[in-house]
Amino acid sequence: MPTGNARDYVLFNPTKKVANKEMAVKIAIHHLGGEETDKTTVTVPEWGTCHIAAYTDTVGATVGSTSTQVKFGDLDWHAKERIIMVREQPRKGSSIARITIYICQIEELFKKIPEGKAAVKWTDVSACKLYSKVMSSAELADILVPAEEE
Predict the structure, then answer these.
(1) Is the pLDDT of residue 149 over 90?
(2) What is the mean pLDDT of residues 2-31?
(3) CA–CA gap between residue 61 and residue 100 (Å, rounded)
(4) Taking CA 103 as the corner, what is the angle to CA 145 and CA 16, rounded to the nearest 5 degrees?
(5) Residue pair 122/59 in contact by the 8 Å Cβ criterion
(6) What is the distance between the alpha carbons of residues 89 and 102, in angstroms, rounded to a whole number?
(7) Are the beta carbons of 7 and 63 closer than 8 angstroms?
(8) What is the CA radius of gyration of the chain?
(9) pTM (2 decimals)?
(10) C-alpha–C-alpha distance, residues 74 and 65, integer Å
């Protein structure tokens, strides 16, 4: 579930899942290199073929399904082994909006999901990450979002 107001985000909008994922693909390719395989997959030199997801929730990341209890291996994308999770943390007070990229083993993430839940907390994502990087959302926007022509 998204948290925060759209005005507090720079690159993502809590109500626009498809657009957020498209932006997450751009961010991952910009930062990690490689190429888009399809709308939900990128292939990057160091990490191989990875599922990609975008998040605006400040508490955790849904990696299962919100409607049913999904176990590791139930969905086709689990075979990709790794997930690139692109999270935008909204502005809060005087802090800037930030993008964090996590790369995790999908199976390890599923081990962190509490019984009966579909999401994992960001602290658990951080604990099982293979890689992470935090960047300014505004700096990425300057690079990735074309200026609108007048």
Answers:
(1) no
(2) 90
(3) 13
(4) 40
(5) yes
(6) 13
(7) no
(8) 15
(9) 0.89
(10) 11
pLDDT value, residue 119: 81
Copy the structure tokens of residue 71. 């176990």
- 28's CB contacts (< 8 A; 6+ apart) are 34, 42, 44, 50, 52, 84, 86, 101
**CA gap 10, 21 in Å, rounded:** 14
N- to C-terminal Cα distance for the chain?
36
Quote the CA–CA distance of 81 and 51 in Å, as a whole number: 8
Nearest to 69 by CA among 122, 1, 119: 119
Digit-coded pLDDT (tens) for 64-115: 655 556 676 566 777 788 999 999 999 988 899 999 999 999 999 888 888 7
